[in-house]
């Protein structure tokens, strides 16, 4: 599914990323560290990736003149999120290597296609049904049972575009609340924990899985990741093996994240695929021999993959806009409280609730201790105001 054009681009070649958010920014920073020139196609000047890029094309990502200009400057192209116009990516792949390929992105940008892909490849996931009309929702309730989660097929992230349906009487309002658009209905999973695995796969099929991350969410948004996840060697191996086989089935060239639910019996169910680096892999910047962003650079440019083992266990917490509610967080208090804390801010203007503004990482021989330390540092950001979050 990736572009068939061979790639062998050594530094200082010019690499391009579509999307101006924090994932694009960290890709660019990894590329620049290796001596590449790195640019971005973004919607506006003040986006996180544009601030650090060597060059930028500012335009909607499906405008043909912008795509021409982007392809002129980028010798190989990647994406920082999956909601990129598939026709635009297909057009670009006629001009330049595009990794991941447009079909991989196309599958993962729509939950109906993604679930069908999982079903077709017999990859374990929660029971689900397509819902494109209200009668189909009634059928889905019968097929998967209640409670269920109704999720819009496209444009959903961080819990947006999804609603839990408890009773058959709630179906009508759930359908209306999501705007009567194509959805998937998914059985509610009483999971024990949520984990994820990031894998990188080169054009030659060589692949590497990072250690498993244990993810905790708050209000459907990732709150913290601990790596390695304390799920034992069998679940670890199964999660990594399954993620590698998903990458192969997608014919992925690039980086892929597989998010799982772990049930009480230790079974794995795939929740979501993302053909790119992921928030749960941010701690690999400091904690792994090769970060997820460097792997993205390597797979894009045709360099061999780096090893993806951990230097030390680590934990990461997100810094959401809520922390700015009463003004700028107290950075020096947080960093004074623990000299091992690494601060990442994405340069976003406007801290609204739920918006990912940055993250903190700490390495510690004991992963649970890492989580305690990084949470304590986050509390210190607002402690003087007496409203710290855990
Ligand atoms: P998603 O956007 O699909 O990754 O969902 C965001 C979060 O909502 C997940 O990480 C879970 O915490 C929760 N969630 C989503 N789907 C389900 C489900 N079928 N059963 C239980 N919790 C879910």
From TrEMBL:
One of its GO terms (molecular function) is phosphoribosylaminoimidazole carboxylase activity. Residues 115-301 form the ATP-grasp domain. Pathway: Purine metabolism; IMP biosynthesis via de novo pathway; 5-amino-1-(5-phospho-D-ribosyl)imidazole-4-carboxylate from 5-amino-1-(5-phospho-D-ribosyl)imidazole (N5-CAIR route): step 1/2. The keyword ATP-binding applies. PROSITE patterns: ATP_GRASP. ATP binds at residues 111, 151, 156-162, 186-189, 194, 217, 271-272. It catalyses: 5-amino-1-(5-phospho-beta-D-ribosyl)imidazole + hydrogencarbonate + ATP = 5-carboxyamino-1-(5-phospho-D-ribosyl)imidazole + ADP + phosphate + 2 H(+). It comes from the Bacteria. One of its GO terms (cellular component) is cytosol. GO terms for biological process: 'de novo' IMP biosynthetic process. InterPro entries: ATP-grasp, ATP-grasp_carboxylate-amine, ATP_grasp_subdomain_1, PreATP-grasp_dom_sf, PurK, PurK_C, PurT/PurK_preATP-grasp, Rudment_hybrid_motif. It is an enzyme of class 6 (ligase). Its EC number is 6.3.4.18. Keywords: ATP-binding, Ligase, Nucleotide-binding, Purine biosynthesis. Homodimer. Catalyzes the ATP-dependent conversion of 5-aminoimidazole ribonucleotide (AIR) and HCO(3)- to N5-carboxyaminoimidazole ribonucleotide (N5-CAIR). Catalyzes the ATP-dependent conversion of 5-aminoimidazole ribonucleotide (AIR) and HCO(3)(-) to N5-carboxyaminoimidazole ribonucleotide (N5-CAIR). PANTHER family: PHOSPHORIBOSYLAMINOIMIDAZOLE CARBOXYLASE, PURINE BIOSYNTHESIS PROTEIN 6/7, PUR6/7. Belongs to the PurK/PurT family. This is N5-carboxyaminoimidazole ribonucleotide synthase. It comes from Singulisphaera sp. Ch08.
